Amino acid sequence: MTVTKTPSQTQPKSPPVYSVTPPPPRPNIIPAPVVDPAVVSAVVEAKMQHFLKELQLKQERHLSQMKETQQLDMQVMTSKLEALGSDVRHHVEQEVAGVSRRMKDYQTYSQSAAASLNLKIQTLEAQNAKLSQELLSVQLMPSPSPCPDITTSPIQNTLTPELHQAMEKWLTSRIQEQEATRPGDQGSCTECRRPMADKMADFALETQGASVISTRCSETYRIRSACVTLFGFPLWYPSESPRTVIQGHPVLLPGKCWAFHGVQGTLVISLSHPIMITHVTLDHLPRYNAPTGRIDSAPKDFEVHGMKSDAEEGTFLGTFTYNEHGDPTQTFELPNPSDAVYRVVELRVLSNWGHIEYTCLYRFRVHGKIPST
Question: What is the pLDDT of residue 31?
Answer without folding.
Answer: 58
